[in-house]
Design goal:
A: 166 residues, Glutaredoxin, 7-stranded mixed sheet, B: mainly beta, two-stranded antiparallel sheet, 3 helices
């Protein structure tokens, strides 16, 4: 095992260096808030950018972030056409509260449940909140962990950079 | 045995490496991409008799891990390196060491997914099977084996798996096999899909196999128990919705499963989870009910503790996050409990008397959990007990009211009041109810474009008593507490926070903490210094005991 590991890591790094931008994992099974299963490939926005935000009902900074973005979301959409997809990592303990939580908070986002953290794992997320920006081709172009008040400014700035490119 | 495992590991490793190489070459080296994360946590702690912190002889404790995932089209392969040299305080000493803890190759096609190696999986709400990990609790029951998921048509998901569960640096002897099917009726039947009615139904079956062993009978030490080698558990479930309403339910049953957890009794297991929710924009309500009878399900019958669970039994109480609200957390009693939880969220509109200029959010939650009403009929080797329809002893209860309001353009305040009843028997301590009153005020203030402050004050009054003359036999949570916290965010990258928790009635020391953190993109670095109260760290209703510590902690996470 000692001999294989360095070789293997070198190989991974080698492919990593030459690799293209990572894309959204395509065939991870998620659930809609109405209990239906969908594949992660359903997350898309007709060639325009997507913000994926991993959150949980019990996560205070996640809730602050999604509530603060709600106030500017309409402007963001008009300006850049961006769509926000909020992926909850609540497990069986609180999964039943995701829909009431989102609707009680009046969130206008597309919401999915990732109850056993399959997409979270596939995207390398450690803690929530964790936010990704996908460009129109579904490539991950930026990611951020944690939320501090005002963090949404940086987020939309990155989206603008995408949409204002010639 | 160990040699065998090493050999097997080596073979799988070579196979994984070969597959990756082939894929890399097959697609041309330019194909595919690598993602993952790295996490490092360190701790230095020195003895402090006032809080009961022990000396750490090795001075520095460290947990580290790296997940690396290679993806190329529908093909992926991953590995995880873990190191515990030595494990952080509170982690099981059996984690000590380092090496490859998780590796797999997977094909994820549009209709078919196949994973060979370590994998995570969940059937329904997880009450018969959930392989998952929680790195902060030191829990990982990943299965090593084969996992197949097939979606023949839209709306139908079939799963089949077999494997053994991880326990620290080894795999448990018990073999776990399972199948599950789920059908979304709306996708299959056009008339349903077009109506306001939604329905998803599912069913699963899990079986574990374990070799025989000698367990003496309680009634006669000369006799050994006739242990079932195969134990099965089945689940049926439905998620039905109409308009703003939805109803979710799962019922599971488990065959005779004498184990160390239940004292080797032969009572069959069962559990029921029901949830009803109503929601519309700005208003939602939900009610959940749960009943568990002897549903602890492990792949190794002699195991106690938190490892090798095949299933997951969610706690029905709210997952509180404020420090004092989670000081006495509830953990699921796998041998038996019944409970209810209600939750209401309401947005008071702008321009009303209470709503003011910006509106106000009100969130009320209440839960109560009691034991089963049982009559003991015998010990190990018998049915054990009879379950009747009544209520057993009170285990936990709480009611919390949270009001959040924007006071001005830059100031937001949240006030929470909670009343809690807690029975220490849920932590295997002598019973006797504690009653706690808790108030939390949380204000965030956007001072300028670059700076924001968050100030939190908490108070807890409790009828639990702390005896300063006998600190060894005391619950260090006991007594009345106050807490203050100030968090200063500078730009979006830096934060500095200072907090102190103080049991003001009985001359104990302060639990102070200072932290500084820096975040850029997906990288976060945090350094803290202070005293940590011993207690339970709980995530998702599963808890682990964290000993008191006194000193420096640091953590680094990055995703790529």
């Amino acid at each position: 095992m000692k001999h294989i590991l360095p070789l293997f890591l070198a190989l991974l790094m080698g492919t990593g260096l030459m690799a293209q931008n990572a894309t959204l994992p395509q065939n991870i099974t998620l659930r809609t808030i109405d209990g239906q299963t969908v594949q992660s490939s359903a997350i898309q926005n007709n060639g325009r950018p997507v913000i994926i935000s991993f959150w949980a009902t019990w996560c205070k900074p996640c809730n602050r972030e999604l509530n603060n973005i709600k106030e500017v979301y309409e402007e963001w959409q008009e300006e850049t056409g961006v769509k926000i997809v909020a992926v909850s990592i609540d497990d069986a303990r609180s999964a039943a509260r995701v829909k009431p939580h989102a609707e009680g908070n009046d969130w206008p986002y597309e919401i999915y449940l990732d109850q056993n953290s399959d997409l979270k794992r596939a995207m390398g997320v450690v803690n929530v909140p964790h936010t990704f920006i996908l460009n129109g081709e579904g490539e991950i172009v930026w990611q951020h962990t944690g939320y501090q008040d005002g963090g949404e400014e940086e987020l939309i700035e990155k989206v603008r950079e995408l949409t204002q490119q010639p | 045995m160990v040699d065998n495992i090493m050999k097997r590991k080596r073979i799988v490793m070579i196979a994984v490496a070969a597959c990756i190489t082939m894929a890399a070459q097959g697609q041309g080296l330019l194909g595919g991409h690598v993602t993952g994360n790295v996490q490092l946590d360190g701790q230095m702690s020195s003895a402090d008799s006032t809080i009961g912190a022990q000396d750490v002889p090795e001075k520095l404790l460290m947990n580290a891990r790296a997940d690396i995932l290679y993806t190329n089209g529908d093909f992926s392969a991953g590995l995880r390196f873990e190191m515990y040299q030595n494990p952080l305080l509170g982690f099981d000493a059996r984690y000590k060491g380092q090496g490859l803890a998780n590796y797999f190759v997977a094909y994820n096609g549009e209709r078919l997914s196949v994973t060979l190696g370590n994998f995570y999986e969940q059937f329904g709400s997880g009450m018969i099977l959930r392989a998952y990990e929680d790195r902060y609790l030191g829990l990982d029951n990943a299965l090593m084996g084969l996992n197949v998921q097939y979606r023949p048509v839209e709306g139908v998901t079939l799963k089949a798996l077999a494997g053994k569960q991880r326990i620290f640096w080894d795999y448990g002897e018990g073999l776990v096999r399972g199948v599950d099917a789920e059908v979304n009726l709306g996708s299959l039947v056009k008339a349903i899909g077009e109506s306001r009615f939604r329905a998803t139904v599912g069913a699963g079956f899990v079986s574990k196999y374990e070799e025989d062993e000698t367990v003496p009978s309680a009634a006669n030490a000369e006799m050994r128990l006739n242990l079932p080698l195969n134990v099965g558990a089945a689940s049926v479930r439905a998620d039905i919705g109409y308009g703003n309403w939805s109803l979710q339910g799962e019922y599971v049953r488990k065959g005779q499963d004498p184990s160390a957890m239940n004292g080797y009794v032969y009572h069959p297991g069962e559990a029921l989870l029901l949830g009803l929710t109503y929601s519309q924009r700005g208003l939602s309500a939900s009610l959940q009910a749960k009943r568990i009878v002897n549903m602890g399900f492990k792949s190794v019958r002699s195991q106690s503790g938190e490892m090798l669970y095949i299933n997951y039994l969610p706690a029905i109480t709210k997952n509180h996050t404020y420090a004092f609200l989670s000081m006495y957390p509830y953990a699921t009693q796998v041998n038996g409990e019944q409970g209810l939880q209600g939750d209401v969220m309401y947005k008071i509109k702008k321009g009303t008397l209470l709503g003011g200029k910006y509106g106000m959010d009100v969130h009320v939650n209440s839960s109560v959990v009691v034991g089963l009403d049982t009559t003991v009929t015998g010990g190990a080797g018998t049915e054990g007990y009879e379950v009747k329809g009544g209520l057993g002893e009170t285990l936990y209860g709480d009611v919390s009211v949270e009001m959040a309001k924007k006071l001005s353009k830059n100031v937001k305040a949240t006030v929470t009041y909670a009343y809690q009843v807690f029975n220490p028997v849920v932590e295997n301590e002598p019973g006797g109810l504690h009653h706690n009153n808790i108030v939390v005020a949380d204000v965030s203030w956007k001072v300028s474009k670059k700076h924001s402050l968050r100030i939190e004050g908490e108070w807890m009054g409790s009828d639990s008593h702390y005896d300063a003359n006998d600190p060894e036999h005391n619950d260090r949570r006991a007594g009345d507490w106050v807490m203050g916290l100030v968090e200063w965010n500078i730009g979006t990258h830096w934060f500095v926070s200072a907090s102190d928790q103080w049991a003001y009635n009985d001359g104990r020391g302060n639990y102070y903490n200072l932290s500084v953190g820096y975040t850029k993109g997906a990288t976060r670095l945090q350094v803290g210094y202070g005293k940590q109260r011993e207690g339970l760290l709980c995530i998702g209703g599963v808890c682990r005991t964290v000993p008191a510590s006194n000193g420096l902690t640091f953590g680094l996470t990055t995703s790529f």
